[in-house]
Amino acid sequence: MTTADNKSANNKSAGNPTVRPTIAYLVALLICGSNGIVASCVNLPSYQIVFFRMILGMLFLFGLLGITRTRLSCKRHPEQLKYLAGAGIALGFQWALLFAAYRHVGIGVATLEYYCGPVIVMALSPFLFHETLTRRKVIGFLIVLAGMVLIVSYGVGENLSITGLIYGALAAVLYAAMIVLNRYAPDIEGLEGTAMQLAVGAGAVGIITLLVHGIEIPADIHAVNWGALLILGLFNTGVGSGLYFPQLTKIPVQRVAVFGYLEPLSAVLFSSLLLGEPLGILKIAGAFCIIGGALFAETARSEIARTS
To answer: What pLDDT score was predicted for residue 307?
Structure first.
């Protein structure tokens, strides 16, 4: 490639403000795809894992805000705080339900069910955000959904827990609510918005935990459990959330939904390679459908640009 070609490519990248947010979003999804793997090493109930995870992630991000001396924008946009608080509550409970689903139906199936959330958002986006759904995008999402059906169908023969499936479905609904609420707080972004959501979510999960269960640390919990919990809280939650949430207001909601399937796909692959969860023909076919459908839907934007 010549110097002129390099300059042209750089100019195109610089002229598209969604390139860097999209890359950060993809990295965050890969980190999130390993959540179930790390959580499997922690011998605590799901609600306690989520509580400690959110506390650690919140402390990490607020510490980073202090180090960078970031000016808080929430004071300039107080009307958006209610949406951010709602997103934080939805975040806390969706994680608690998802981690419970991990224990009942496995990481791969639970994560795939959880990712019905973006499909719900996609269906609502024309009404909530006035974003256009093209025929190509709809076809792409149908292919993605077909892939999910194939993968979940594979798990039906594995005596899936009804309770676990209900947990996963409720987590998906709360996931959709979290994405929608974040879109209504576009001016409180970056690490600040993420840290505030983790703080609210930790408070909500902590209150419910104290009222319903209480916090009890098993006597047989080992050092490896604490190490995994620190990784889950500081890296997966702190770094992962810091990359993930700021991008939700910077890229189109359909791209959030389409590219978001990298997380369940990576979770299925990680759980198969590292935990030995079965990966058969139906799961492989489903994975191809997820990737192919996502690419097919995302290329709709470039096709429209060429014809306009």
So the answer is: 34
